[in-house]
Amino acid sequence: MARVANSGPVPVVVMGLGAIGREIARASLQSEEVTLVGAVDTHPALVGKRLDELGVPSPIQVEPALRRGPARGRRPVVLHATGSSFPAVAEQLLAAVKEGHPVVSTCEELVFPWVRYPELSDRLERAAQRAGVSVLGTGVNPGFVLDRLAATLGQTVGPVRHVLARRVVDARGRREALQRKIGAGLTEDEFDALAAKNAVGHVGLLESAALCALGLGLDLDEYEEELTPVLAHEDIPGGAFVVPRGRVAGVNQTVVGLVDGQERVRLELMLALGAEPPGDQIVIESDTPLRVEIPGGIPGDSATAQLVVHAAPRVAAAESGLLTVLDLPAGR
Asked: Could you tell me if 289 and 312 lie in one domain?
């Protein structure tokens, strides 16, 4: 179990200064548990700039790579926000770990990577153990609403027969990159072509299902995934751009987890411009059934930043290896 050492604020470095990375940097500056000591991004337009030029109130200058620290002493926790695909960011994670940095990452597939990438997961696990540091993937979804929160609620009931977790997000208030990522503005044919290449939609729903099942004591043996476009019935303004009537406004995604052919876990996500009513819902079937709703839903980008920053001291104090959010203490 991770416990926070009482040795003052934990130094952190933000890696990746897109919209989420900058949000993490701002959250770090607000936290009493961490101290922001560095920022890293490889983009030529960002290297050499100060964070206050990027909307973050800090004079820290953006570096192109992690600085090599002293041979001894506490290395900063890397707050990593560069991509959603585990294979695409694996070398960044391995390099940080090799230099002795604990890592908290927003990479969605890292939240529970063993289902899709068992060999790569084992490689990162071994590297972290050799370096004596911990690595964690977290965020609001995956990492909290549809998995950790559901698992925590499941502790209040007996054996769980089935769980339904549903999240509806109006993407108009989210960053433009996410709106593009869910296919907003595409024709249906364009969406289908990208979906066939796994190049559109939310990343991490299957990982949430696996993590949710683990936390609820369910041993899934099969998964089924479905991705369909949400079409605009009228022009939808209010986002980074107007989605014309008949174009794609976002996605409907479902992952079902099965045990011996029987559905035990169902996660549903609607992430679209104009999706309504926004909110989060968890329904647990057991001898004591449980239903929890969060009207409006937990905010996406800001909550992800807070979860990453909150995890940093816990990961710095944790046993070495590749962790999941279920390994973290529930409270502050």
From this structure: no
- What distance in Å separates the CA atoms of residue 325 and residue 136, rounded to the nearest whole number? 7
Q: Whole-angstrom Cα distance, residue 228 to residue 212?
A: 23
Chain segment 302-312, per-residue pLDDT in tens: 999 999 999 99
Burial class (CB in 10 A: 0-12, 13-18, 19+), 317: middle
Cα atoms in the Cβ-side hemisphere of radius 13 Å centred on 260: 1
Q: Are residues 28 and 109 in the same domain?
A: yes
CATH number assigned to the domain comprising residue 307 = 3.40.50.720
DSSP 160-172: -SEEEEEEEEEGG
Give 232's DSSP letter: P
Tokens coding 49: 């700039």
In angstroms, rounded to a whole number, what is the distance separating the alpha carbons of residues 151 and 148? 5
CB-based contact 167:145 (threshold 8 Å): yes
User: Taking the model in full, what pTM does it have?
Assistant: 0.93
What is the per-residue pLDDT across 153-164, written as a single tens digit (0 to 9) for each?
999 999 999 999
Residues 122 and 189 in one domain: no
Structural contact between residues 171 and 185, judged by C-beta atoms closer than 8 angstroms: no
Peptide bond into 142 cis (omega under 30): yes
User: By mean pLDDT, which of 110-114, 145-149, 238-242 is the weakest?
Assistant: 238-242
Structural domain including 251 reads 148-298
**Cα 268 from chain centre:** 16
Pick from 224, 213, 226, 205: nearest CA to 161:
213
